[in-house]
Amino acid sequence: MDEAASTGPESDAAPAGKSAPDSDVLLEMDNVTLRFGGVVALNGISFALRKGEIFGLIGPNGAGKTTCFNAMTGVYRPTSGQIRFQGQSLIGKKKHEITRGGIARTFQNVRLFPEMTALENVMVGADAHFKTSVISALFRLPRFWREEREGRAKSMELLRFVGIEHRAGEVSRNLSYGEQRRLEIARALATNPTLLCLDEPAAGFNPAEKEDLLGLIRKIRDTGVTVLLIEHDMRLVMGVTDRIVVLEFGKKIAEGTPAEVRDNPAVIAAYLGVPTDAA
Amino acid sequence: MSAIAEKPAAGSGKSSRQLRGWLGRQPAPVRWLVIIAFVAAAYLLPYVGEVPLIGPQIVTTGVDWSTVLFEMSYYVLLALGLNVVVGFAGLLDLGYVGFFAVGAYVTALLTSPDSVLHTQYGWVVAIPAALAVTMLAGVLLGWPTLRLRGDYLAIVTLGFAEIIRIIATSATWARGDRGFSSIPHPPGKTSDGTPIFGVTDAIPYFWLGLTVVIVIVFGVRNLDRSRVGRSWLAIREDEEAAEIMGVRTIKFKLWAFAIGAFIGGLGGVMFAGETGFINSQTFILQFSILVLAGVVMGGSGNIAGAILGGALISYIPNRLRGIQGPFDTDLYEYRFALFGAMIILIMVLRPQGLIPSRRRAMELKDREKEAAPQ
Amino acid sequence: MNFSGLIQDFGPLTITGLEQGAIIALFALGYTLVYGVLRLINFAHSEVFLLGTYAALISWGWFGLDQNSATPSVGAVLGYLVLGMIAAIVISGVTALAVEVVAYRPLRKRNAPPLAFLITAIGASLVISEVVGVVTHRNPRGVPPLIKPSTVFSIGNMQVSNLQILIIGLALVMMFALDRFINGSRLGRGIRAVAQNPDSAALMGVNKSRVIALVFLLGGLMAGIAAVMYDLKVGVTKYDAGFLLGIEAFTAAVLGGIGNLRGALLGGLLLGLLQNYAAGLFGTQWLHLASFVALVLILLFRPTGLLGESLGRARA
Amino acid sequence: MLLELKDVTLLYGRIQALHGISLTVGQGEIVALIGANGAGKTTTMKAISGLRPIAQGSIVFDGQDITKMRADLRVVRGVSQSPEGRGVFPGMTVRENLDMGAYTRRNKAEIAQDMDRVFTLFPRLKEREKQSSGTLSGGEQQMLAVGRALMSRPKLLLLDEPSMGLAPMLIQQIFDIIVEINQQGTTVLLVEQNAQQALSRAHRAYVLETGRIVKEGTGQDLLTDPAVKDAYLGVA
Amino acid sequence: NKDTSSDTASGSNCGYKLAFFGALTGSAANLGVNIEQGFELAVNQYNEKKGSTCIEVAKFDSQGAAEVAPGVARQLVADKKILGIVGPPFSGESEAADPIFEEAGIPTITPSATRVSLSSKGWKVFHRAVANDDSQGPAAAAYIKDTLKAQKVFVADDQSAYGAGLAEVVKSKLGPLVVNTDKTEGDGKQSDFSALVAKVKSSGATAFFYGGYYTNAGLIRKQLTSAGWTGTLLGGDGMKDPGLAKAAGNAAATGTVVTCPCSPPEQAGEEFNNAYKTKWNVAAGTYSDVAYDAANIFLQGIEAGNTDPAKLNTYLSTVNYKGIANTYKWTSTGELDPTLIKVWAFKFDASGEEKADVEIKVS
Ligand SMILES: Nc1ncnc2c1ncn2[C@@H]1O[C@H](COP(=O)(O)OP(=O)(O)OP(=O)(O)O)[C@@H](O)[C@H]1O
Ligand SMILES: Nc1ncnc2c1ncn2[C@@H]1O[C@H](COP(=O)(O)OP(=O)(O)OP(=O)(O)O)[C@@H](O)[C@H]1O
Ligand SMILES: CC(C)C[C@H](N)C(=O)O
Ligand SMILES: [Mg+2]
Ligand SMILES: [Mg+2]
Q1: Region B3-51+65-371: CATH code
Q2: What are the record keywords, sorted (chain B) (predicted)?
């Protein structure tokens, strides 16, 4: 693990997130506000992810974490504020453009293509950067063969990577919950992301499985992918992330290294409660 | 029903699955040989009446057998096209007949002496224009409806088809019920100078139709087994998730519409070229619904299923023609009633269709056992 | 285009539009109810309506009434109306239930895919209308002139007849009652629960089969009433009467937001008005075009219909 | 015995998910069911609540054989489940969802009282009383699912991973709530990944592996069982 | 499949078939059935006279639909024993089916397809046994002007080739008397005509000409009456069927006027009417008599030894046949000789039947 990359100069949470003009900023939330009628789900959120880090997003239920993901991936459009990815604004971009631009995600409630096999699910992700379209598929042009072969090989490799290659031919709805979550990760990885967003990937895992997942997330980071992680399991979050932002009621209440966040009284009061036995 | 037993899409679902399994296990040359044999048999269908015993059972009695075969060929074509839209991409289209109509009408407008355009092109010349216009119509229909989900899409497509029908009926240039006559037939002469595509003999039309069907089957199959087909499937399963995985849903949905429209339009072009006369009465809504029933009955999402379904929906009513029913009636009179009953029966017995796609068959078997006691 | 014609006929077209819309709206409820719960376009609902139109006619036939009879006395008319309503409601209700039991329940038992339901629905619709077609030789059957039309009041050249008041009034009353039932009663809540999550509904103690049957029954009842009104208004019924009006009713349901009861009312009335104005402006042959063009335009801007979908949100 | 499963097998199409499960839950107990992903915990719950028919075996509840009984009738008899994945009615408001929980009950006063109790347990739900539940966050929905299950005043409460998706603070709370409900007389069958917490609260527990029960004992026994520790509790 | 020249059954010139081609089912089936029954009656009588089934009847149901017609027509021409065809009754199906008959060279006599353009297609086998719409339209207009003396007329049609064409002619002949016009959908596509009714009512018209078929017309008449409109509904031969009164109710239908390029049934004579009634249990309908004549013309030709389609067709061009409905003599395009054309007006009475009113002289 290369911890080095994560320890930046600033870790103070107080000033608005404009404090990261570094060239290695990958994604920047700049004063993002998102309202649903009367509910303010995000309230002037600012933070920045750096390339290559594992970044945690935590906070009580309903704090706005998933909404953050949805704003980044184009599912919701912020009421105000900016989201920049590699210097470019994401506001108003189509969902598939954002994905091709390098952001991939998983869902809090698993959303696979239930009747497609595990392999096909991953291939859909791999297709994101292929170009075969109707004409080349219709006439079986060389590009079709090349991309089909590549996509298949790559997808098998990813299934192996997440540890479910033996299920490649199984229809995804028949996989167990844990396998489905892994498959979601493989599918997201297949899109060649620069940034991978995981929404509670460990929900419903037992401690042993969580341990596996922790290893997997590190492995992903080691391939050069930046990871943004939403998770309620503190052992996992504290064990794997480089930096953490804490939300409450749509506001950022803390930002810093795991150690800093864990000891932050505001976070303890709002989220952690009595220090968990897990910690 | 047995008429279809000779076609590649053969027989009952069970044996077809065994057949497919068996076929799958054969080396490529054998597979091709079997396929070629089936195709050859299909081309010989006009003469099936000569086959002793079973032949006469198959051939229709009240209506010319070759004409029925030709009709089957364009119904199959329509089913194949609709299968792309509904079966592959999961876009429920209740107004598919609209494209059939557009194809036929553009042909008529360009070729018939009755047309306001006075171009009087030949049939072949009209084809590219007709297909281009239908594809455009497909995209035009697709574009505004992209935001609509499932059943809303269904009603809008139904609305579009009705709009086309009403225009065909009521707009002066479309000539309504008066229609367009003297639409030219496909070109070509035999050695003795008589046209190949005449009016009294429909066999050449059937062969033409069958050939087109075969070409389309290959095209559609190629699409299905590619990134395009995968994208359609993903869209069908979870559109938003697909988009978030980078699938350009809009593009592929439009393609589905365009391809479906293309194939439907082709059916229309062939129909116009054969009858030589079209008017607004042909393109009724029930027609779309019938084709949809064919697709689903055959096995939505499966090419062989679409072929079988399309063939059945045109064969069965025609076969009933000329058969003595109760009270001194022609069974043809009861065709839709019988047909409706058959649809219910088939769907209840085989909810996934007669020849389900392998995927759907599996799915169903799983789902079935899961069903909780009601 | 004939603007002066439209302006001149505006009043009469408005009242006929509302009258027609009221019938469409009641008819549309069946689609909306079933769709709301099962996500199923119940194509056979048009035949539920169709049999209703015949049921009333046949019940009047028992008393020797046919299209050539003279108009009965006022008291008798009331009796006949009630009789016709009961006959239509019973037959439509029973038909709706029968369709559910014969065509849908077996599929549900096998957890069949949604398209399969759509196709059996089409099958059921075909069987019923075609059997009626064969039995009646596809000839129309005339309705006895039960209600002697008379103008009750008029505004400008808009003359409102007793029949029109009856039809519009009855439709509103029925809609209101149904709305109260669905949104206000425990059973209504059960219906909405099954609509939204059948498994969870079962876990709350809701009997899914009974709810589904109830929904079909309610749709059938409304269709039965619509059928009698149709008889009185159109004066004739035929084996394909359901199909024709069914498409419009379904359109109305979608227009208002399918699954939404109030949407059905709004959609129905809107459709009735639009069609009649279009007939005034462009000619009667374009009447249906108006409804479909309106449908497409409205869905473009409101993809789930005017009032949004789902029984669940009927309240909001 | 309040609940008794004998040799229950269950199929998902070609997949056999349960291979002869036998378990009992006594009146007034908290029984925990733990096991890895795909072990069959949820499936067992579904078999008990009647959401999936079982292929073989029998289920007896409160002295009555309910093996073939419809799910909704089991609710009337007193079985209530908070399902995995929450299963809220997305188009209904929070309050309407809770009302649905009391669908089989008639006593308005008691229902109102229970509603208040749920709101005290989960103040967040009170705040969101009129929001339609489909737009709640994952954790909020989880609270709603548990609250809704309580609304039927069940004899037997089935909780499928009630802590899933909840923030750490709430996890503590939810387990406290379970104990409290239990002390008020409700029997609880609990499926949990958070085995540590579950076992320490449960009177008895079963360990499930690939559709079979491989161990049973008191909560404390299993908590200290090295094999269990190793497999389900992670590093201590 | 047997050869044409085989003299099989008893007597000479036997063993052949005559065909009816037209709607036996479908929404305007009554009209087709009337014609078929007149045709079949003639052949039966001929066979009875011969004492054997000399000429067989072959029936082909086109449903009156243009898209169904070609397949059925091909089935027909495949039967080489068929020497002549009575039909197709409707103009639309004629467009689709006649080219096939033309190519096969089988002579046709249509007792009712009245679209003008049918005779201008150069079909040699086409023969029309009645006047075309060019005579019927002016006749209807003349009736409205001269007999009815209406000052305000509303004209509408069902957009069918037949109905629209007829209404067009009527409109142009009536000129300024037309206060408003409209179009409806065709049979079986619309049943609620309240918008049309509202327009008719507010137009102040006292006469309403509808170009269309009896089913729609009956519905319209009924809805007009119940909306309180008391003017006269008029139409062409497509509305001349008791089906109109069945839909409208006799009371409402009473007084409705229809024109027809045909003669009153009484003129066909007791003998025919009784025979028809005995055989079919209903009174002869519109064009039953013409179909009867058409069949007899064919039979006479066969009797004279014209036992193949080509000869029979040539025979038709020489025919001058006096039948029960009219005398028949054809021009080279297959139209009835102009001097033989007649148009009558009929009126629905309180029993729901159309009774001959006046013969309309068109100048
Ligand atoms: N479409 C919506 N309409 C109204 N309110 C919404 C909508 N979506 C989310 N919310 C509200 O916004 C808040 C933030 O929700 P979000 O899903 O982001 O929470 P979260 O931090 O992911 O919580 P959890 O840990 O429970 O998943 C919640 O209170 C939720 O009720
Ligand atoms: N709907 C289904 N169709 C087919 N197989 C299923 C289905 N649901 C579950 N299974 C399979 O049944 C087995 C048991 O699943 P179950 O959901 O009961 O596990 P679980 O113990 O609850 O796991 P988790 O901790 O992941 O929730 C798994 O192998 C799973 O793949
Ligand atoms: C039978 C007739 C009413 C037919 C009509 N004259 C037509 O040409 O279609
Ligand atoms: Mg969340
Ligand atoms: Mg589970």
Answers
A1: 1.10.3470
A2: Cell membrane, Membrane, Transmembrane, Transmembrane helix
Q: Is residue A29 part of a domain?
A: yes
Which of A60, A174, A206 lies at the smallest CB-CB distance from D232?
A206
- B152 CB within 8 Å of a chain C CB: yes
Answer yes or no: do A86 and A2 share one domain.
yes
Is the beta carbon of A39 within 6 A of some atom in ligand 1? yes
What residue in D sits closest to B367 (Cα-Cα)? Answer: D13
Return the ligand 1 atom nearest residue D141 CA.
26
In the 3-class helix/strand/coil scheme, how is A53-104 assigned residue by residue? CEEEEECCCCCCHHHHHHHHCCCCCCCEEEEEECCEECCCCCHHHHHHHCEE
The answer, for C115 touching chain B at a CB cutoff of 8 Å, is yes
CA-to-CA dists, residue C11 to C7, C156, C265, C267, E202, angstroms: 8, 7, 21, 20, 10
* Sheet containing strand D3-12, strands side by side: D15-25, D3-12, D56-61, D64-65
Final residue of a structural domain among A192, A218, A239: A192
Distance A110 CA to ligand 4 centre (A): 12
Half-sphere exposure of residue C277: CA atoms within 13 angstroms, side-chain side: 15
Chains E and D touch (3+ CB pairs under 8 A): no
- A228 and A165 in a single domain? The answer is no
Q: How far is the CA of C189 from the centre of ligand 5 (A)?
A: 28
Tell me: do A4 and A141 sit in the same domain: no
**Which of C186, C206, C310 has the CB atom closest to D91's CB atom?**
C310
| Boundaries of domain holding A165 | 112-192
Give the per-residue pLDDT at E11. Answer: 59
Which of A174, A192, A210 corresponds to the end of one domain? A192
User: Per the domain annotation, does A24 fall within a domain?
Assistant: yes
Q: Does E250 touch chain C (CB under 8 A)?
A: yes
A200/A237 same-domain check: yes
* Shared domain check, A165 and A211: no
Q: Is the CB of D35 under 6 A from ligand 2?
A: yes
What is the distance between the alpha carbons of residues E156 and B170, in angstroms, rounded to a whole number?
Answer: 13
Q: Which two tokens stand for residue D225?
A: 């069982």
C-alpha E185/C-alpha E158 separation (Å) is 5
Q: Which residues pair with A197 in a beta bridge?
A: A105, A228
pLDDT in tens, C192-236: 888 888 889 999 999 988 999 999 999 999 999 999 999 999 998
Following DSSP, what letter does each residue of E16-54 receive, concatenated? Answer: EEEEEEE-SSSTTHHHHHHHHHHHHHHHHHHHHHHTS--
User: Does residue D138 line the site of ligand 1, with CB under 6 A?
Assistant: yes
ipTM given for this complex: 0.86
Q: How many domains does chain A have?
A: 2
- Has residue A17 been placed in a domain? yes
A85 shares its domain with A64: yes
pLDDT digits (tens, 9 = 90+) for C134-169: 888 888 888 998 888 888 888 888 889 999 999 999
Residues A188 and A206 in one domain: no
Using the mean position of ligand 3's atoms as its centre, give its distance from the Cα of residue C131 in Å: 28
Interface A–D counts its CB contacts (< 8 A) at 100
Q: A107 in a domain, yes or no?
A: no
Of residues C49 and E263, the one with the higher pLDDT is: C49
CATH number at residue A254: 3.40.50.300
Find residues 313-352 of chain B whose CB sits inside 8 Å of chain C: 329, 333-334, 336-337, 339-344, 347-348, 351-352
Tell me, using a 6 A CB cutoff, whether residue A175 lines ligand 2. yes
Question: Is the domain of A73 the same as that of A201?
Answer: yes
Residue A41 CA, ligand 1 centroid: distance in Å: 6
| Residue of D125, D136, D137 to mutate, testing the A interface (most A Cβ within 10 Å of its Cβ) | D137
